[in-house]
Sequence to fold (111 residues):
Amino acid sequence: VQLVESGGGLVQAGGSLRLSCATSGFPLDDYVIGWFRQARGKQREGIACISPSDDSTYYVDSVKGRFTVSRDSAKGTVYLQMDNLKPEDTAVYYCRALGVWGQGTQVTVSA
Fold:
């Protein structure tokens, strides 16, 4: 099982980024994929996930309406579209499946 995040970077407040989580070693359609983030000095928190059965999604209140999780099974990739970014979204973002973490990708939002 391997997960590799990409797509992070520096963006101004109000901007957008799309993170990718490339997966391998397991059938993507059969497992929940979660997105997490960890800001400096804070605990890692779960922010979104996508269900394997019907692609239903869940979001924490702080990102609801701004972030969207989607899955491209043919590419083995899960995406996190982040719109209307805020400085408080600055963190390292991780995807997780089957108890395995990716290496993370840094997102920095400037005011």
Summary: Residues 40 and 104 are 13 Å apart (CA to CA). The mean pLDDT is 96. The radius of gyration is 13 Å. DSSP finds no helices and eleven strands in the chain.
